[in-house]
Design a protein that fits this description.
Blueprint (H helix, E strand, L loop, with lengths): L1 E7 L3 H16 L6 E4 L7 H4 L9 E2 L3 H5 L2 E3 L5 H6 L2 H10 L4 E4 L3 E4 L4 H14 L3 E3 L4 E6 L5 E5 L4 E9 L14 H8 L8 E3 L3 E3 L23 H6 L3 E11 L2 E12 L4 E2 H16 L4 E6 L6 H17 L8 H10 L7 H7 L4 E5 L5 E5 L1 H9 L1 E8 L7 E3 L20 E3 L7 E2 L4 H32 L1
Parallel strand pairs: 1-2, 1-10, 2-7, 10-21
Antiparallel strand pairs: 3-6, 4-22, 5-6, 8-9, 9-10, 11-20, 12-19, 13-14, 13-16, 14-15, 16-19, 17-18
Helix pairs in contact: 1-6, 1-14, 10-11, 10-13
């Protein structure tokens, strides 16, 4: 088959690119043949699991606030972002019939909180613009032909040709959705450089959280399937709200965050865990020691926390009900006034220093509760990080096709005319909160428009030569 534009990858960036290309071609009076090649049975598989199925599809912030959450390639994506900013993305979905809502942190969701609605809207707009979507179409190789066109060979033995080609294959995260890094291999085969790839927005695994953790494909990679230790079992399922966290690399603060954190079967997750994971994973891969320090009382100084702990201890001692209660039980009551009850077993297991046993004789042992140690642990709970969960459950891939080899105003390759990259295939990534999907949508839209312009010029040039 001969097409004007082929998009490889039917995810957020790829579907947007196909819609944008078909729409731009129509605006130019050019009946472009646009095709999406998706190797999975259905497009948008990764979108379906985004935001635990709720799909936080963008973040309604202005550029200055939004760009502060882009960890790689902020200035590079600025032209794409301005061409299809969050407000326009929301309008796109609204126009397609999907009602949207904006929640805390400027995060935009479908009103239904169903990610399937996002996929359905993208497919509907893509097909409505005149593009076609071929599923179960796994690309095996790409070749640039002498006449300037591209030849795309599929696993079923068929070959497709096109004037312009868009690679929107995503990264390596969640390989079960089809993201297996194929685009990086094709980029290299066409002469492009791919920067080092590593998981981001993933779980950080504290030391002692897992047992029998075999070495993974990357240094410090620990499979999510590795069994939890006794400490991990006590922590798993606990969520902490409005706490502080510091990321320490080689003992030096590398990041400081405030918000929520979740202890899961993977390790440290939630907004705080994810935000720190990019720097943490990169540091571990490079051989640096990483730790996370949790502050359970971020709005209060250590002095004030210590004073409060002592006051509560005295209140418990004065309570008549405490007369027959042992020191360990009093300690538990004290901790219950300072933290969620379900956190107490893990907190005490992680901080044995808060209780001291003094042997006064063979049958006489005194238990001391160290109030100052409790205060210090509340303000600085140190967790040495042993590793991280890899591609199997990382939300995004950091690294990708080098931005030095891509023109930011068109997303066209500087090395191969007519070749475009968008979305996670590029060396761009951002925080959790709708930022990464927004980058996929806006880079997809720009790549599609640019590819349509390039393909139109090729067709127009060919007609001129014939005349």
């Amino acid at each position: 088959m001969k097409y004007d534009i082929i998009v490889i990858g039917g995810g957020a960036a790829g579907l947007t690119a196909a819609w944008s290309a078909a729409r731009e071609a129509a605006a130019r009076g050019f009946a472009a043949r646009v095709c999406v090649l998706e190797k999975m049975p259905r497009p948008g598989r990764k979108i379906m699991i985004t935001g635990k199925g709720r799909c936080n599809f963008t973040n309604i912030k202005d550029w200055n606030a939004f760009s502060a959450h882009i960890r790689s390639g902020a200035q590079f994506v600025r032209p794409a972002w301005r061409g299809f900013p969050p407000e326009k993305v929301a309008e796109f979905f609204e126009a397609s019939g999907m009602e949207t809502v904006v929640e805390r942190g400027d995060r935009a969701f479908p009103e239904s909180h169903r990610s399937a609605d996002v996929v359905d809207a993208l497919v509907r707009e893509c097909l409505g613009a005149g593009a076609s979507i071929l599923t179960d179409s796994e690309v095996k190789s790409i070749e640039k032909l002498s006449d300037g066109s591209f030849s795309v060979s599929l696993a079923d033995g068929s070959t497709h040709k096109c004037n312009s080609l868009i690679i929107a294959t995503g990264g390596l995260s969640y390989p079960g959705t089809g993201s297996t890094g194929d685009g990086f291999a094709w980029a290299r085969s066409l002469g492009h450089t791919v920067t080092p790839l590593f998981p981001s927005l993933t779980a950080l695994v504290p030391r002692g959280y897992k047992t029998d953790a075999p070495a993974g494909e990357l240094p410090h990679h620990i499979s999510r399937e590795a069994p939890l230790s006794e400490l991990g079992t006590k922590l798993c399922g606990i969520s902490l709200k409005n706490i502080g966290a510091r990321l320490l690399i080689q003992g030096t603060e590398a990041a400081s965050e405030f918000g929520d954190i979740d202890f899961t079967d993977g390790g440290l997750e939630g907004p705080l865990g994810f935000q720190m994971s990019r720097k943490a994973v990169k540091a571990m891969i490079n051989g640096s020691k990483v730790a996370v320090e949790l502050d359970l009382k971020p709005g209060v100084s250590l002095t004030d926390v210590t004073t409060r702990v002592k006051e509560l201890w005295e209140e418990i001692a004065r309570d008549p009900r405490s007369a027959r209660i042992r020191e360990k039980e009093r300690c538990r009551i004290l901790l219950g006034k300072l933290m969620p009850w379900d956190l107490i077993p893990a907190f005490t297991a992680a901080h044995p220093e808060i209780i001291t046993l003094e042997r006064r004789g063979r049958a006489d042992t005194k238990v001391w509760v160290n109030l100052v140690s409790i205060a210090k642990a509340l303000k600085a709970w140190d967790l040495d990080i042993e590793g991280f969960v890899g591609w199997e459950r990382a939300v995004i891939t950091a690294g990708g096709v080098s931005l030095d080899e891509i023109t930011p105003k068109t997303l066209e390759s500087r090395l191969v005319p007519g070749l475009y990259f968008c979305g996670e295939a590029l060396d761009i990534d951002a925080d959790t909160g709708g930022y990464n999907l927004q980058l996929a949508f806006c880079t997809g839209a720009l790549a599609g428009r640019s590819a349509a312009c390039y393909s139109h010029s090729m067709v127009a040039g060919g007609l001129e030569e014939m005349s």
